[in-house]
């Protein structure tokens, strides 16, 4: 498979008057092959959404500095003009957002919003556009689409709205779809359906998917590879199997440990990562995760670890969780984090 | 007026969409399949439903309707010709015939039937009030859209002009314009209208700037929708409701302003045409002997203004996004 997206040393900083810039994304590199699904995992504020907005070219122009490279099939997206970028959004790049209600225009019918995309990029007009919109809504599993097409967003359920947004995003068969926490605002039962729909669509259309989430459970079901972000940098990068079998970064381990498990006894409390993501250490000083890390060494607070290539994974840690072979007791992620 | 305003929200929304591209119109046509009543329920229609259940809105609508009907049907309702000095013979210095069986509200200082004059006065107030607000609304909408859509130096330029307009007290501004353009009805209309431009322009610009940051605009941008479409079919229709509310409220202000201008002697050239503000001005001399001559046009002005204010306030409530969901 050929390389679709190559993000190299992406940096996004928000300039602040009279104060040093706020670095939201600090040298992030990852890649995506055609048709592949890659997860971008992290807590709120880890820079995952800003990364996706930077790739889409949707960051505000004022007050934001973007550096590094974003290559989509050899085209350097950061060097394109706003107009060129706009032409790419839709047929090449598309995005699904977190909150389906606020992402739909409340005063326009669903049909108008879907046909708007079809008019813009596929040149469909009138009856043809309406037919295609109905087909798309039907494809994403909206029952009675010819009726729904005349309804307004507030008349649809949360799941329906997200389906409609997905229909709009895939209307032009984009090569790359970025889904930014697509299920966070939805019921648990709907979440699974939406994820299944996304999986079906990307397989069917050969679309590559970047799935942004804080939920490793979502990643486990969908992603080929996973990038774990913390404080604006990638701290661990591996394929799904490797990551779930043997998380090496203490943060990844902590995320895994904080997932509720069906097979654990009912009275075992969940294991949260202590502290909050705002307890950041600046990367210039040391490891951003150090203030919350249970395996912290003195070194962690004085020197930031580099992203080291370990073959099956890339890792940014001075004192990673041990590999299973090295210890006979085979510590599970849960035990380690405790 | 009462019925058409909430509908205008829905209409405004689709009109904005249609303006972008002719193709939209087709999509708007409902498919022949008959759906349940709630299909295609726009927010405007929902707001109208809420409006109908609000007693304050009903009260306001009744007053407005009364005002409009009186203005339209004045020739049928008025018992006498408003300019005919029908009671001229009974006028003595300092005293005029009071209310009687034939003349319910008595006569004015020149012996004309007061009731007929009050009824006919509604015409002038409604006509000038509505025209002036339309002028203010249209120009304000244009300037506000320019500023809100483009931002940057366009926004700066437009808003500084509006600031200058706003820094002059609106009545003073109206007086200067009326004085500049001379004693004509059109000058009063323009004067009151121009004085209203800043409110509409500022309000629309503010809402548009806020709406531009909303999620659905980001979502539309993520699909490569052009800026013109985003402004016309996404941002503008969503920014209209505060402006519509303001439009209704401004009608009240306009009616009072028109009365105030004619009270100050700036109104249409024909002194015979009954006008509440002028009637009020004429009554001053007889305030001690015939206070009803001041009281009656005052009441008429208050009722008309109150109707639009009540309607506007309940429209604001009905369109409040916080109550929407």
Could you explain how this protein is built, in words?
The complex is a heterodimer of chains A (338) and B (325). Chain A is α/β, with parallel strands linked by helices and 338 residues long. Chain A is 31% helix and 23% strand. Chain A contains 11 helices and 12 strands. In chain A, the strands form 2 sheets. Chain A has an 8-stranded mixed sheet with strand order 6-7-8-3-9-10-12-11, with helices on both faces. A 4-stranded antiparallel sheet of chain A has the order 2-1-4-5. In chain A, helix 7 (188-205) links the parallel strand 7 and strand 8 (208-213). Chain B has 325 residues and is an all-alpha fold. Helices cover 71% and strands 0% of the residues of chain B. Chain B is built from 12 helices and no strands. In chain B, helix 3 (43-53) packs across helix 12 (292-319) and helix 8 packs antiparallel against helix 10 (227-263). Chain B is elongated and about 80 Å long. The interface between A and B is large, with 47 and 40 residues.
Beta-sheet strand percentage of chain B? under 5%
Order of helices and strands of chain B: HHHHHHHHHHHH
**Biggest beta sheet summary of chain B:** none
Beta-strand percent range of chain A: 15-25%
Structural features:
heterodimer; A: 338 residues; alpha/beta; 8-stranded mixed β-sheet; 4-stranded antiparallel β-sheet; 31% helix; globular; B: 325 residues; mainly alpha; 12 helices; 0% strand; elongated; disordered N terminus
Write the layout of secondary structure elements.
The complex is a heterodimer of chains A (338) and B (325).
Chain A: E1 3-16, E2 19-33, E3 37-41, H1 48-56, E4 64-72, E5 75-76, H2 82-88, E6 93-96, H3 110-122, H4 126-139, H5 145-148, H6 158-170, E7 176-180, H7 188-205, E8 208-213, H8 216-222, E9 225-230, E10 233-239, H9 240-245, H10 250-257, E11 308-309, E12 313-315, H11 333-337
Parallel strand pairs in A: 3-8, 3-9, 6-7, 7-8
Antiparallel strand pairs in A: 1-2, 1-4, 4-5, 9-10, 10-12, 11-12
Helix pairs in contact in A: 3-4, 3-6, 4-6, 6-7
Chain B: H1 4-20, H2 23-28, H3 43-53, H4 55-77, H5 114-150, H6 152-167, H7 170-181, H8 185-212, H9 215-222, H10 227-263, H11 276-283, H12 292-319
């Amino acid at each position: 498979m050929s390389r679709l997206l190559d993000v190299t040393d992406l940096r996004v900083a928000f300039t602040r008057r009279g104060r040093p810039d706020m670095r939201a994304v600090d040298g992030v590199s990852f890649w995506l092959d055609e048709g592949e699904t890659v997860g971008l995992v992290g807590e709120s504020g880890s820079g995952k959404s800003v990364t996706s907005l930077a790739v889409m070219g949707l960051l505000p122009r004022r007050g934001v500095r973007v550096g590094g490279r974003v290559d989509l099939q050899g085209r350097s997206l950061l060097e394109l003009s706003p107009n060129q970028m706009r032409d790419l959004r839709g047929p090449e790049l598309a995005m699904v957002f977190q909150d389906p209600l606020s992402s739909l225009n409340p005063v326009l019918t669903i049909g108008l919003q879907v046909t708007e995309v079809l008019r813009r990029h596929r040149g469909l007009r009138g009856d043809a556009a309406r037919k295609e919109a109905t087909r798309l809504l039907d494809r994403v599993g909206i029952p009675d689409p010819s009726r729904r097409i005349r309804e307004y967003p507030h008349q649809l359920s949360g799941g329906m709205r997200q389906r409609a947004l997905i229909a709009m995003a895939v209307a032009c068969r984009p090569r790359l779809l970025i889904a930014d926490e697509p299920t966070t605002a939805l019921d648990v039962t709907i979440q699974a359906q939406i994820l299944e729909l996304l999986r079906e669509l990307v397989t069917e259309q050969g679309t590559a998917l970047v799935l942004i989430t804080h939920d490793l459970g979502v990643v486990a079901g969908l992603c080929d590879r996973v990038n774990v972000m913390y404080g604006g940098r990638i701290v661990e990068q591996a394929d799904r199997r490797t990551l779930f079998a043997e998380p090496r970064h203490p943060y990844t381990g902590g995320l895994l440990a904080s997932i509720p498990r069906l097979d654990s006894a009912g009275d075992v409390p969940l294991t949260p990562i202590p502290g909050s993501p705002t307890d950041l250490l600046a990367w210039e000083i040391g490891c951003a995760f150090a203030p919350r890390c249970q395996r912290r060494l003195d070194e962690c607070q004085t020197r930031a670890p580099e992203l080291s290539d370990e073959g099956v994974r890339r890792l940014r840690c001075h004192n990673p969780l041990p590999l299973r072979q090295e210890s006979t007791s085979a510590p599970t992620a849960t035990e380690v984090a405790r | 007026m009462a019925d058409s305003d909430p509908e205008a929200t829905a209409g405004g929304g689709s009109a904005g969409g249609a303006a972008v591209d002719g193709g939209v119109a087709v999509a708007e046509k409902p498919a022949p399949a008959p759906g349940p009543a709630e299909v295609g329920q726009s927010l405007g229609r929902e707001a109208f439903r809420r409006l109908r259940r609000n007693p304050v809105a009903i009260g306001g609508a009744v007053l407005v309707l009364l005002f409009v009907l009186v203005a339209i049907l004045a020739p049928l309702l008025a018992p006498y010709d408003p300019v005919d000095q029908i009671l001229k013979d009974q006028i003595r210095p300092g005293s005029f015939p009071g209310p009687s069986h034939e003349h319910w509200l008595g006569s004015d200082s020149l012996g004309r039937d007061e009731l007929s004059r009050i009824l006919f006065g509604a015409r002038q107030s409604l006509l000038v009030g509505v025209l002036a607000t339309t002028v203010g609304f249209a120009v304000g909408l244009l300037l506000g859209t320019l500023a809100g859509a483009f931002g940057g130096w366009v926004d700066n330029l437009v808003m500084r002009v509006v600031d200058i307009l706003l820094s002059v007290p609106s009545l003073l501004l109206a007086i200067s314009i009326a004085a500049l353009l001379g004693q004509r009805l059109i000058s009063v209309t323009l004067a009151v209208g121009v004085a209203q431009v800043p409110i509409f322009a500022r309000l629309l610009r503010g809402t548009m700037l806020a709406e531009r940051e909303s999620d659905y605009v980001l979502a539309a941008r993520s699909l490569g929708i052009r800026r013109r479409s985003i402004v016309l079919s996404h941002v503008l229709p969503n920014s209209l409701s505060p402006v519509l509310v303001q439009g209704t409220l401004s009608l009240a202000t306009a009616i009072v302003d028109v009365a105030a201008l004619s009270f100050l002697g700036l109104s249409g050239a024909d002194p015979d045409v009954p006008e509440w503000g002028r009637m009020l001005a004429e009554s001053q001399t007889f305030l001690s002997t015939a206070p009803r001559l001041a009281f009656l046009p005052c009441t008429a002005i208050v009722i008309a203004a109150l109707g639009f204010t009540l309607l506007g306030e309940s429209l604001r409530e009905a369109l409040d996004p916080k109550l929407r969901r």
